[in-house]
Automatic annotation (TrEMBL), chain B:
Superkingdom of origin: Eukaryota
Organism field: Podarcis lilfordi
Name this polypeptide is given: W
Gene Ontology biological process terms, A to Z: chromosome segregation; kinetochore assembly; mitotic cell cycle
Gene Ontology CC terms: kinetochore; nucleoplasm
Lineage of origin: Eukaryota, Metazoa, Chordata, Craniata, Vertebrata
Length: 189, 76
């Protein structure tokens, strides 16, 4: 019963452990088991408040950077599993920073392309133009854009059929079933 | 270097590459400006290459290795 808290500390995350000071806990009478739990709760509350405050203090760019970092770390994890190579933390941070700055350049370029075509909305064509410098990248992006175009066409057709089916109910239900069966076949193939 | 621009040569070269592409007036001057800037970049890059190799004269291999880099950088 002399030091129950240190054992409990193993269940705490690293960020909370530094809040615990055994001398202060003893002085305040948190050394008992039941009061230890209260102490932990107090600590957790304080830490949660701190974290919320920290998030509130972050600017939009910092949040965006954090999101970039998270995504980059996930992608790096995939690559490291695939190639059996480990990334250091600094490498991942550097990659995320590079990605962030590259995105600024991309945004400016896309804006200029759209303006050149006297549009205010960025198009798929603009993105293709952005990737024109490397042949392989252009090929990849063109394939992807064709895929997207096909998908959107299919969705439009489906919507048309659905809107048509609302008018004549029974006959169109059978038709829809046929459509579903066909699409399943195509998925299997 | 002489200060005249070989306008008809520039136009001819461009029309050779893209026969159906028409040019507005004085665009060839801007094309020529781009060429000059490209040559300048190439010269600077080649000289740094030669200095890095501690050779006092610019040799063909310096130009070749720097041309690769500069051509890649000056893609539109």
């Amino acid at each position: 019963m002399t030091r129950p808290l240190p054992q409990l500390l193993f269940f705490l995350p690293q960020s909370l452990r530094r809040h615990y000071r055994p001398e202060r806990a003893r002085r305040r009478g948190w050394a008992g088991n039941s009061s230890a739990i209260f102490a932990l709760r107090r600590l957790q509350k304080g830490a949660a408040m701190e974290a919320a405050e920290a998030v509130g203090r972050l600017s939009d760019t910092q949040r965006l950077k954090a999101a970039f970092h998270y995504t980059v770390a996930g992608l790096c994890e995939e690559v490291s599993q695939d190639k059996e190579i480990q990334f250091s933390k600094q490498t991942i941070a550097a990659i995320s920073e590079i990605t962030f700055r590259q995105c600024e350049l991309f945004a400016k370029d896309l804006e200029m392309f759209a303006r050149h075509a006297k549009r205010s909305t960025v198009n798929l064509e603009d993105v293709k133009l952005l990737a024109r410098r490397s042949k392989s990248l252009l090929k990849y992006i063109t394939e992807k854009s064709e895929e997207i175009a096909l998908n959107s066409l299919e969705e439009k057709e489906k919507r048309k059929k659905k809107s048509g089916s609302r008018k004549g109910r029974r006959a169109s239900d059978e038709q829809e079933e046929h459509v579903v069966a066909e699409s399943d076949d195509s998925n299997m193939a | 270097m002489k200060n005249t621009v070989p306008r008809s040569t520039v136009k001819k070269l461009l029309s050779k590459h893209k026969p159906h592409l028409r040019m507005r007036a004085n665009t060839d001057l801007l094309v020529h400006l781009n060429v000059l800037l490209f040559l300048h970049r190439l010269a600077v890059e080649t000289r740094t290459n030669a200095i890095a190799e501690k050779s006092k004269t610019i040799k063909s291999r310096h130009v070749r290795s720097s041309a690769k880099i500069v051509l890649k950088k000056s893609r539109g």
